[in-house]
């Protein structure tokens, strides 16, 4: 019985021979025999994938999430493909933004001027498109600020806070995927889709003749770390302004640009206080209550900022405010979009006084009148 359970001499010899045979077989080489070459793309587009507007990796044609088992029964090849995708530098194909800088912006040891425009359709280097079209470049662009700054020995950085995403045309699969993601019952969605298709067919028939270059259905892909003016300001501060050699950094921020600066101050308070000498706001829309600005920041703003606001009063006249932050003075115009241009000479005078005050351990006094507003802390 014991011999039957353990197997006879012939059985042992067969087992030993089988083990010896298996030991000589290179299993990796055996798996490679029918395997496709391990050659993979080096871009997301090559893999036919893209990140959608929600930051999700999706197939360009099908709109589906990543599929690991791309080839059945080839686990090793699928794993290598997966690893190759993970090595792709997504930054090569992802949308990017830009800023303008003078040649000495990061190496100028003395002064650096940072310009931030407002929200809306304006782009880097512009204050107001309406002024550019209807009046002139001096009033509508940042060119006068840039020229004077360079002439007075400043380095210059021009921010681009409104370029937050790119629009790309949706594929048919992506359009269908958007429709399929609805929470509506299937029957109701089918009826709705049918009506939409019929309506679209009629509209396209007439549109083909009326507007040959009709717009396609698009989706927005946001720029990493630059998805809003506030994010953009923080990104440029972290990667450029804070790395600059300038002993004195100055900001000119118009309208929503002022809000973006205040948010930067909230997020990088110690750094900003250490590096920024003075801030000129022009009709800024920031709000220290809504943005929950702390007391220490409000105190710093009162001493180092000035807001030139739209007003019927003469230029630099003190204007009362209900908010306990920086002093407000008249920009010499009641037009919001003109405040940066009308206050132009006073801004550079303010900066010059700020440097002198810093060097003599005094604070600048930007207003014409001496009745500076005293705020009560609440």
TrEMBL record:
<dbReference type="GO" id="GO:0035197">
    <property type="term" value="F:siRNA binding"/>
</dbReference>
<dbReference type="InterPro" id="IPR053858">
    <property type="entry name" value="Arb2_dom"/>
</dbReference>
<protein>
    <submittedName>
        <fullName>Cotranscriptional regulator FAM172A isoform X2</fullName>
    </submittedName>
</protein>
<dbReference type="InterPro" id="IPR029058">
    <property type="entry name" value="AB_hydrolase_fold"/>
</dbReference>
<feature type="compositionally biased region" description="Basic and acidic residues">
    <location>
        <begin position="185"/>
        <end position="197"/>
    </location>
</feature>
<feature type="domain" description="Arb2">
    <location>
        <begin position="88"/>
        <end position="315"/>
    </location>
</feature>
<dbReference type="Pfam" id="PF22749">
    <property type="entry name" value="Arb2"/>
</dbReference>
<dbReference type="GO" id="GO:0005634">
    <property type="term" value="C:nucleus"/>
</dbReference>
<dbReference type="GO" id="GO:0031048">
    <property type="term" value="P:regulatory ncRNA-mediated heterochromatin formation"/>
</dbReference>
<dbReference type="InterPro" id="IPR048263">
    <property type="entry name" value="Arb2"/>
</dbReference>
<feature type="region of interest" description="Disordered">
    <location>
        <begin position="177"/>
        <end position="197"/>
    </location>
</feature>
<feature type="domain" description="Arb2">
    <location>
        <begin position="40"/>
        <end position="85"/>
    </location>
</feature>
